[in-house]
Amino acid sequence: MTPREENHEARQEKQAAIFDAACRVIREKGFHQARMADIAREAGISYGLVYHYFGSKSELFDALVEEWFSAVEILLDRGLDRFETIEEKLGAVADFFLDQYEKRPDLVHVSITEFSRSTGNLTPDRLVRFKRLLSKVEEVIRQAQDQGSIRPDIKARYQTYVFLGAVDSLLSTMVLENQPLKGQAQRQRLAQAILTIFFDGARPKSG
Amino acid sequence: MTPREENHEARQEKQAAIFDAACRVIREKGFHQARMADIAREAGISYGLVYHYFGSKSELFDALVEEWFSAVEILLDRGLDRFETIEEKLGAVADFFLDQYEKRPDLVHVSITEFSRSTGNLTPDRLVRFKRLLSKVEEVIRQAQDQGSIRPDIKARYQTYVFLGAVDSLLSTMVLENQPLKGQAQRQRLAQAILTIFFDGARPKSG
Amino acid sequence: MTPREENHEARQEKQAAIFDAACRVIREKGFHQARMADIAREAGISYGLVYHYFGSKSELFDALVEEWFSAVEILLDRGLDRFETIEEKLGAVADFFLDQYEKRPDLVHVSITEFSRSTGNLTPDRLVRFKRLLSKVEEVIRQAQDQGSIRPDIKARYQTYVFLGAVDSLLSTMVLENQPLKGQAQRQRLAQAILTIFFDGARPKSG
Amino acid sequence: MTPREENHEARQEKQAAIFDAACRVIREKGFHQARMADIAREAGISYGLVYHYFGSKSELFDALVEEWFSAVEILLDRGLDRFETIEEKLGAVADFFLDQYEKRPDLVHVSITEFSRSTGNLTPDRLVRFKRLLSKVEEVIRQAQDQGSIRPDIKARYQTYVFLGAVDSLLSTMVLENQPLKGQAQRQRLAQAILTIFFDGARPKSG
DNA sequence: GATGAATGAGTGTTCATTCAT
DNA sequence: AATGAATGAACACTCATTCAT
């Protein structure tokens, strides 16, 4: 490893430490209540050093947004095509969110409490990226309608609301109550519950 | 009408005007970006007068929260019992939110973007009120399970996520895209779509 | 009594009520902490009415100052000449302050805590009036020196500090501890103690 | 000197500079009229920096109060015991105040005009510290009464009023008239005058 | 006279950002 | 790179004063 590479790597690490600290602080206090001083203290570095790695508070926030949306976009761009059935595809979507929450609860917390709804933080640019998720799921559902595996009498958009709303509600509740999520088994149980209702409905099987 | 009553009424009106102005400004810019000066200007009154009617910015915000939650609580406490079937009850819930959005889009907007998820604004007290909605719907669903009108093999809590998540997603999307909602017909179509998926599922009827 | 006189009298009474209220409130909270609203409430009248009787807060304060200094000036101008001896004259001065404190403790309180020392309130104009007291006592003492009834080897000005300082300390202590003063007997005991020390000194009579 | 010590020392110096600036500004305009901006300008630093060193305006004021009372308390606790006679002890008290006024006229000015009498600024806590001075002098005088060096027929408390009142009046006058005090000779003349009157009285020696 | 709503200048405090070392 | 002192714009809140009724 060249000195240059070492240097670069050290930089990456420190940046990641600040990033994580920001996640924790913003999760705890919200974006507006989170002060740069809090983040520096949480990261164990000096006040001014944050500005060496992130040009401003909003740039630091942008990095969180970017981290989140890029993960979502990888899912949307490359994570669904390998599945055949709509059940698998939507299962992969649900899995993705639950998996993210297990691995990076702070980031998911922040994504839910700070950027997915807040007027102040949801810039037009971010809104566009947010809507891509809706559009992609809608598209997947519409294709399934074409193939006859999803009912055609309800607009794909509405079916999207039901499905993504369920995932979002579940995550939101866990986030707001600070419930941790542990293990694939639990994840699958949750995903299964949502998928079952979504596909088969809440009405008991008659007979 | 006595002078005292007139006075009182005038006070109510002015307070409502400030309330509405606050709604619009907070909807537009978010709570933290909304300056008291903006609200005063929007209400067409002087800076200091806001403080005649609301003791502080956070008290003004509390009033919005109160207005919203008290409407929700009326629904929860008195709005569902007169219905017999689970379909009617959940239909009433969906109707309520769509109706509120039609009548008071600013307040609903603020409720979604500012207090239902934001860590900074969601005080423990508000979280409790927020969770009452979840609990009530869960209770209604559990009763329906007991009566055999909702499938018993999925926890009521998960079914609640699906139903309320659908409503929330729908509203959130309309709110974030500033889509107006007009007329009972449109409301019913939306509610019907959600209820149909929720009860019957997305899977096409086989055969 | 003509209607005009009645009117005038009513005005006087109301003004006096506001004056007294101001005394009490300013005594309680200090001039800067005393709000016009507090004074109006204490006087049992409406907010704006204070401005019918006193043009501004500082005018109201001026009225208190005036009331106090005019009493002092009556003492200085007409209250001492009828006495012959220096003992009687200084006794009259001590008596005056103790008597005022008994009769109008609020006004004396305010005079001590708000205008005799406070930089912010002691305008040049008021300082001049304040110094007249010092000068008058100094003059009285100097005359006594000339007549051989006060020792000549210490500047009259310094003797003035001792005498007035003693009176001021006594009053200040009573004021700061909210001690009431009741009856001529108590007044005379206090005055006597101060005069005895002042004239005869603290040293025990040798032999 | 280690870097850390240098740093610490620099901090102390800057803090002292702000302290002194606050003294001057508060002396000039009074506590309430003194704006933080004035103090910053007087100290030659930026607005916000004052808050780096003192958390709030009232904390800054507290620092002045503390500085003054701690000096007084050193006198009371350790400054009088080494003297034998009551003349020496009270002389030390008078000397102390005159010495402080010569060395730190601004602080003494502020102590007289802002915290020794003002209702608004004299918190219960400060009142207690203020009364310790009275109590200590009273105690010293009482001991002298027991030893026969102060007349026993007048309450020690009243004799305290005469002595401290004299010192206070002298200082107050100098402060209100902005008279500087220079040199030990002048100090001694003033102290001597007060002590002479206090001990021997104003009455000329008969015979 | 009497009321209290209305006005807006003034100020303490916060905190993102910059900069000297 | 690293530190933390320094800067100053921004903003909530107060309250003396005015004014319409």
Task: Please provide a written account of the structure.
The structure is a homotetramer of 207-residue chains. Chain A is mainly alpha-helical. Chain A folds into two domains: 1-55, Homeodomain-like (Arc Repressor Mutant, subunit A, Orthogonal Bundle), CATH 1.10.10; 64-200, Tetracycline Repressor, domain 2. Chain A has helices spanning 3-29, 36-43, 50-53, 57-79, 86-103, 105-115, 124-147, 156-176, 184-200. In chain A, helix 1 (3-29) packs across helix 2, helix 5 runs antiparallel to helix 9 (184-200) and helix 8 packs antiparallel against helix 9. The relative contact order of chain A is 0.10. The mean pLDDT of chain A is 93. Chain D binds a DNA duplex (21 and 21 nucleotides) through helix 1 and helix 3.
Features:
homotetramer, Arc Repressor Mutant, subunit A, 74% helix, 207 residues, elongated, Tetracycline Repressor, domain 2, DNA-binding, mainly alpha
Short description:
By secondary structure, chain A is mostly helical.
Topology overview:
4 copies of one chain form a homotetramer.
Chain A: H1 3-29, H2 36-43, H3 50-53, H4 57-79, H5 86-103, H6 105-115, H7 124-147, H8 156-176, H9 184-200
Chain D binds a DNA duplex (21 and 21 nucleotides) through residues 7, 10-11, 14, 35-37, 45-49, 51-52, 55-57.
The secondary-structure element order of chain A is HHHHHHHHH
Rg calculated over all Cα atoms of chain A: 20 Å
Any idea of the CATH class of the largest domain in chain A? Mainly Alpha
Proportion of residues in helical segments of chain A = over 70%
The largest sheet of chain A, given as strand count, sense and whether it forms a barrel, is: none
**Which class best fits the helix and strand makeup of chain A?**
mainly alpha
What is the CATH-assigned architecture of the largest domain in chain A? Orthogonal Bundle
Query: Are there runs of chain A of 5+ residues with pLDDT below 50, and where?
Result: none
How many β-strand runs of chain A?
A: 0
Identify the CATH homologous superfamily of the largest domain in chain A: Tetracycline Repressor, domain 2
Number of helices of chain A: 9
Strand share of the residues of chain A? Answer: under 5%
The interface involving the most residues is between: A-B, 59 and 59 residues
Termini separation of chain A: 69 Å
Question: Could you state the oligomeric state of the chains shown?
Answer: homotetramer
Mean pLDDT score of chain A: 93
Q: What is the 3D form of chain A?
A: elongated
Write the CATH fold name of the largest domain in chain A.
Tetracycline Repressor, domain 2
Whole-number tally of structural domains of chain A: 2
